[in-house]
Structure formats: C-alpha cells, structure tokens
Amino acid sequence: MASHELEVMGGPAKDEVKKSVLAVMDHTGDTKIMWDADNEAEVEVAKKTFDSLRKKGYSAFKTNKKGEAGERITEFDPQAERLIMAPQLQGG
Amino acid sequence: MAYTDAWPSAWINQGTTTGTGSSLTSNAVWTYWCTTTSSSNATTMTINYPANQIWTTWCTAPTMSVTTANVTWTQWVETEEQKKERKAREAEWRAQEAERNRLWQEQETLRVKAAHEANERAEKLLLEHLADEERERYQRSGYFLIRGQSGKLYKIKKGTHGNVFLLDEETKKEKVSYCVQPSGVPVADANLAQALYLKHAEADFLKAANARQLN
C-alpha cells in the first residue's frame, strides 16, 4: 500500500511513512493535505476537504506522483497516491 | 477723471462726475461699501470707513491692517500662531502620507513575493505531471504537447486565455484555439488543469471552451 511503502536504502527513514497527497489548486499555487490511509483521522480530514471542494464545483483527478497515469474521480479514494483538485473551467 | 469712468452709474447713481470731490447718496451701490469719500480725486479712493459697512468687514483701516479677529480678511491673512498651526498640520499630513506610502510599498512587496512563490509552487506541480520531453519543451519554449482523451494532439502554451490549441497531426499546425481556464490560480496551475481536463475529461473541456477556428 502506498502509504506504507518504505525505501530500504537511501530513501526516507524507516519510521517515515509515505503519505498520500491531496493538492488543491488555489491562489497560493496549491495547498496540500496529506494522509496515511491507515490513519482514520487523517483520511477523514482529506475526505471532508475533497467532498467540500466537490460541492464547490472542483474536479478531482487521481494521478501518481510521476503524473503518468490518471483519471477523473467523483468519490474520494483513500488509497490514491495523489489527488489534484482543480477549480471548474470557465470559457474565457 | 470722472466718477462715471471709474464707477459705472449702476454703482453710483449720484455724485460729482468731475472734479475732485464726491458726495454719494445712501442708495448707491458704492455707498454700501463706504458712505463717504474724501474730497480728493475719486480715483485715489481714499475712503473713510464707517463701522457698519461692507468694506469694514474686510478691513477697518485704510492701511488694510486687520485689527479684529472675526472679519473676512482674517481668513486670508493668518497670524503667526495660525501659520505655525498650519505648518504643523501640513507636516502631520505629509507624515501620514509618507506612512501610507510606506505601508502600501510593504504590502505590494509582500503581494509580489507571494505571487512569485505561488507561481513557483504551481510550476513545480505542473512539471511533476509532465513527461520528461514535455517538461523540457515547456521550460525551453513555454509550451507542451498533450494527447487528449480522444487521442487528439493539443498544444498548451504558458498563459490562461486562448492558449490551448488543437494541432493538425501531420503538419502540427494550430487548427483550433480554445479559451477556457479555472479562475483564481497561477498560470501554471491553469495549464495543469487544462491538461488534466483534456486527458481525463476532454468532453467537459470542449463544452466549456470558447473555440475559434484558425486558418
């Protein structure tokens, strides 16, 4: 599972947990919310943020950290490696 | 000089029109300013000042020196005390203005710094989502190419309005330009959002966009 993947050599310390990231686009560039899928409280915070932004019209895209794969999602996925939330597009 | 030359008859309806003396009647305009004149030539305008005439609200003596506090002239001529107070007030205004300018400058510096940091953060996020070749292209030329959900080839230029183009597969020429973007985010965020929509929600992108056919 992504949140518990540990680098054996040359990576994060053994007790360091790789967390999932929810990046919300905003005027500061983005605001990141991180969670560990095994931590219910963290998952809850990320999910609440996700649901709140969805109600505001944001679209959510699930990607991996290299940005290679992806899909648009409508429900929060606690197992996602990275979620990006973008404000609704407006024709200019 | 005749009175009528210097003072039209509308102002003085009676008086000696020649010579050096004058005796104005009480209902002449001029008599609202001064009721009597000296016997000298009128053009010298040597005047006696009765206490309750208009002229006396300007000055109480022929030398024009101000002797009372509540007359019109004191609005024009300030005392040393008043001058001191005015200078102090002006100095305070200047200090307040300088402070306002300083605060504005400080806030502007913070705003520019925050905008710069926001752009950097957004660009980092965008670059993380680009393939190596496209990342290099974006950094070198200010645009990147992307395949939409349909497989069509798009070019996204750095910018927010009219910066997305459908390319001809063979010639790579721009065929259609699209104007669509999220609001309230830095440019690089807008470009990433455009790319994500094209890759994963192309129909929604095209539905929201203003499209323009290019020659």
Topology overview:
The complex is a heterodimer of chains A (92) and B (215).
Chain A: E1 20-26, E2 29-35, H1 40-55, E3 59-63, E4 70-73, E5 82-86, E6 90-91
Parallel strand pairs in A: 1-5
Antiparallel strand pairs in A: 1-2, 3-4, 3-5
Chain B: H1 3-6, H2 29-33, H3 54-58, H4 73-76, H5 80-128, H6 132-141, E1 143-147, E2 153-157, E3 164-167, E4 174-181, H7 187-200, H8 202-208, E5 210-213
Antiparallel strand pairs in B: 1-2, 2-3, 3-4, 4-5
Pick out the low-confidence regions of chain B.
1-47, 63-69
Global mean pLDDT of chain A = 82
Strand order of the largest sheet of chain B: 1-2-3-4-5
Q: Main β-sheet of chain B, in a few words?
A: 5 strands, antiparallel
Net shape of chain A: globular
The helix/strand series of chain A, from N terminus to C terminus, equals: EEHEEEE
Name the helicity range of chain B: 40-55%
Give the largest interface: A-B, 25 and 39 residues
Give helix % range of chain A: 10-25%
How large is the share of residues in beta strands of chain A? Answer: 25-35%
Major pleated sheet of chain A:
5 strands, mixed
Q: What is the percentage of strand-forming residues of chain B?
A: 5-15%
Q: What do the pLDDT scores of chain B average to?
A: 77
Multimeric state: heterodimer
The coarse silhouette of chain B is: elongated
Number of DSSP strand runs of chain B:
5
Number of DSSP strands of chain A? 6
Task: State the gist of this model.
The complex is a heterodimer of chains A (92) and B (215). Chain A is α+β, with helices and mostly antiparallel strands and 92 residues long. Helix content of chain A is 17%, strand content 33%.
Please provide a written account of the structure:
The complex is a heterodimer of chains A (92) and B (215). Helices cover 17% and strands 33% of the residues of chain A. Chain A has 92 residues and is an alpha+beta fold. A five-stranded mixed sheet of chain A has the order 2-1-5-3-4, with helices on one face. In chain A, a hairpin with a 2-residue loop joins β1 and β2 (29-35). The longest helix of chain A has 16 residues, at 40-55. With 215 residues, chain B is α+β, with helices and mostly antiparallel strands. Chain B has a five-stranded antiparallel sheet. In chain B, a hairpin with a 6-residue loop joins β2 (153-157) and β3. Chain B is elongated. The model of chain B is unreliable at 1-47 and 63-69 (pLDDT under 50). Chains A and B meet through β1, β3, β4 and β6 of A and α5, β4, α7 and α8 of B.
